[in-house]
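Researcher: I need the complex structure. Ligand is fructose -6-phosphate. Inputs:
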Amino acid sequence: MCGIIGYSGPLEARTILLDGLSQLEYRGYDSAGIAYFDSRSQIHVVKKTGKVANLRETFSSISDSSHCGIGHTRWATHGGVSDVNAHPHHAGQVTLIHNGIIENYHSLTQEFQLEASLVSQTDSEVAARLLDIFYEGQPESAIKQLVNRVEGSYAFCIMFNDRPGEIYAVRSVSPLVAAYTRAGALVASDLTALIPYTRNYFVVPEHHIVKLTGYKISICDPDGKQVSPEMMKVNWNTDAAMKNGFPHFMLKEIHEQPEALKNTILPRLTKGIPDFTDDQIPDELFLGCDQIHVIACGTAMHAGMVARSLLEPLLRIPVTVSIASEFRYEEPLIDEKTLVIVISQSGETIDTLAALRLARTCGSRTLAVVNVKGSTIARESDYVLYTHAGPEIAVASTKAYSVQLAALYMVGCRMALVRGRFTGEQASAFLAGLLDVIPAMETMISRKDEEKNLVTHLLSQHDTFFIGRGLDYAFSLEGALKLKEISYIHAEAYAAGELKHGTIALIASGVPVIAIATQEHIFSKTMSNVREVKARGAFVILVTQEHASVDPDLADIHIKIPDLDDRFTVFPIAVVLQLIAYYTSIGKNLDVDQPRNLAKSVTVE
Ligand code: F6R
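Model: Output:
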């Protein structure tokens, strides 16, 4: 949540900040603002509600040059969406941007009698005012005092009136990465803002104070000692964060799935069997557990639901899936014999991070399935299995989901092998089945007009139901989430057999029911449920494998995916469901990539 960027260097700072904010906008887009030193070393603050494009327009007439500044794109938490609540916040000597939540802002306001001076309703302005009180010409000492007083999560980038060319940054929990590049010094809430300038970066260590100037970056630990950063390298390229001719990032990312799967699976195969030696994940991790607990949020949690349906029958050990925001406040029944798998695209989701920390305190061994290299969850987990989807920019997750599934399927295969549930041949046959999904996804992408045409019926609807059993139910959950988040149509996923226990009351003439029936052993059961909704007038969109024989009167629209081993149908179905959501959103003229109220990386509770 909230994108932040700071730059000091020889280039035009406003251009770098605005371009960086456009890259970071998926983190929040309620308002945007920048602050910069002008050629006379005066700080200017410009901020506006709305998107970065709105802010950019303001600058078309300013010609004065600037080489140091900070920028912010906001996802509102404290205080409504208004110009005054937008960042940066200016207080006396201090100009500051913030990502996170200052939990004790109210008591700080009272203690330091700030009420009269506050002009916004934000917790961030309280931090700016407090820092101004502490500031006596020594940035590090003032920041240290601030850090000692604020509670919660934060990433701050700060400029002081009398320190032109300098930016100070500090964080706790909320992410910040930085790099010294040929273009100058940069700090940002995530890598996408840095990749136009460098592949080499470092994660700002928590509670360390980073100082950026046009010619260097220095870092002090909490005791004031200078330290060197641990450099990391990312293999994403600039193209990966551009639309490359696609009208939306979401459509581009749907198309990228087959490639992302290859990048995630192929480097980890030895003689056709998953091998995690290069990931430094020992087989002993898979042998020493008697249960698996999967924890994640949103789409990543839905990948966990699929994993549960796959892994439990495969491994014959209990597999539980928890929503991270619930798990973190529970008293979980996990111990050192539990393998905890956390899943996160961003690697920064605060609830998933807290759940990971709790799992570690319970003695469980943790494996993180993460897309962003060097992210907090990746660094704090005992083991990490990186997915190689490249940057995912659209707020609605697509390719990250598919590669999370691929990684979990590989883990399942390796576990089954080392636990004696698979022979070598069975493991390589399973893996071959996983590789078959790549052409199947390509086929469904090439047939995307089917979804484009079918959504005409959905556009005028208020409610949609997704039904399925077993694995098909697990996929339905993700289909419903995708539709809700970008088309704003209410959608619910139901285990098909559960409909009769109340929900079928909502099925009336024309109500869309998207029924997924790809599992042979329960196919006829699901079809009975389809018959029941059809009898009540539902508009049925049925998704089956090619070979399935279906009474033509049952489905208003029948989408067929290529025949696969039943365990793998989720992959082409994900494409179908993503495309249904995508074209519905387009048909309603909505902002597909940046739907209302959402943000890509949920770094506040
Ligand atoms: C939905 C979506 C979210 C994320 C969730 C977890 O399309 O993207 O539901 O899946 O916020 O995010 P990560 O995977 O970054 O932890």
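Model: Summary of the prediction. The chain has a mean pLDDT of 94.
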